[in-house]
Predict the 3D structure of the following.
Amino acid sequence: MDYSKLTQLTHVELFSGIGSATIAAKLCKLPMQTVAVSEICKHAHAIRTQLVNDDAPNFGDITDYATWADLEVEDLDLVSAGFPCQSFSLLGKQLGWNCPTVQKVTRSIRDFVIATYPKYIVMENVTAIVNRKNEEGTKAYLDSFQGYTWDIIRDNPNHRGYIQSRGRVYIVMSRKDVPTWKLDTSKFTTRPKQTWGEISDKRPNKDPIKGEYMIINAKRVHSSTSANIVLNDESTTMNCWTRTAIDAHCSRFSYIAHGDGYRSPSTVEGLKAFGHKKTPRGLTTKENISRSSFFRALGNSWHLSTATEVFKQFPLAELKEWNLTRFVDTFINMEAVERHAAKSIGVKLRALFSWDDFMTTPSGTPRRLTATSSHKFDMKDGTNIKTQGMYLAPSDEASFKDIVIQTCHSRGLCAYACLKTSGQMKFNSHVAVRVGKTRAWYAYPLRFLRQLLMEVVDGARKAHAKGDRYQYRPNGTSDIFWENFIYMDLAKAAIVGFDGFYDYTKHSRRRLMRSGFPSSYHLTFSVDEKPHTVKNALAFIRAGLSVAIVMTDKEKIKLVDMGFDRVIDGDDNDHRPQDPAGSVVVLRAKGDLIGSDSPFIKSLAWVLGFLNEVSQCVD
């Protein structure tokens, strides 16, 4: 799988204007790609193109269903929509939800959401949308989005230190199956009072600059029918529009002292007043955009201070985990997991312990399933293979009171010489960790498998980033039929950089004969003292897998020195998938087996006889 699809958000920007939603998301570093926009004003879209430049296609009028009926947006994360505010604004006719235009566009938004089923929606409008006259209609509209919950807040950036006084509401909606997007205005950041001097254009105040300033007739500023605010460098508050009598389209701000007269704001100042960091000059000289068109588009946009605060509270971490969970669930045999969870062992354990009891360290941090150690092997083709594994409690080590847990059902004398008896594995702290993990598997198998596969995905991602491949050994000290619970071939095919699972096993040849045994699971059969061990070993050899035999160190060296092509010294490395098909891997006795006369340890004569049977059976 392309890992970016687990973390990269997809976004459609309705009523995109100059791209406020996209710009705000980028300012708070949301990993979001805008895949399409809808904007009918060519001037607004031309400005957006210069400010954002993301090549997102514009399908135009949202109310023209034919323009987006065939829009290909799979698994859409976010839809933003700053739908028209004129019917709610004090500058309009205040028809509210009775306005035919509002009814048409908001119905189109809902229909678009029904068609694309995004995880989240964010909408912006004037505060009047939640006043006494309109709040009932607003609630009814939001409740009509079936399958979604919603949250709404009011904010005025001027109350948090910004110069522009612009009261707005933001509505966030969350699909009911995803982590909820909640807004808390108490967490919005504030700043020292912003003054006009901070954002004013520092060009010399000489003659008007074409496309930037416009000299204002003093009579307009001091009209008897208006109460316009004149800004100077010390001003800390500005309106986002002038009186209706002067300009009814939110296309200009308060006037600015200019020498002995007055001027309008420049395009750069307009962008800064809306919180823009990117403020290119000459916007009105490109694409035949007039000053009036620019400020009309700007006046309909979002103040980036509030928009970024809204996006900062987007549940990104929770959504990433949700996406990853949904991804790894495709590799889990849910029916097998349900059967496993329903066994009496799991029922008893769940009655006594929570997941955290098993999978939390003494310091209170979540415990990993995968061992921290890893190994890297050089393959013959030059590829590096990184391997990691998981160590559970072998045999019945995890049993508890009347709860019998057996992770190695085909165990033999090897149980007395398991890896648990060597190195750090025998320390009490290591015993407690693997026992806890094992009990977690029997009590909470779905959560266990999800974490295991997430760790595999993460390991493969890191290896792939370095140009390596990644393999995983789930049975480091156990012998569980993981192929019953994990669709291993599917996981290998879907996870970029992942090269499959491998293990040692004591289970018989019948394991290989099971329907659908995964080709991506490399098993090495461990020869033991049991009567049918040779038959089982030969079956694994014929299947192109490996066979492991434990010998004394002295006799193992003698055998290796004989130079058999099929014989591999398993103590050189523990990565069996790189062995040639049908290899016989010899290992020296370790732990409590050293110096033992256990029949689990095979003599040189026995191994030579076995090699003869292999040659007769295979060659």
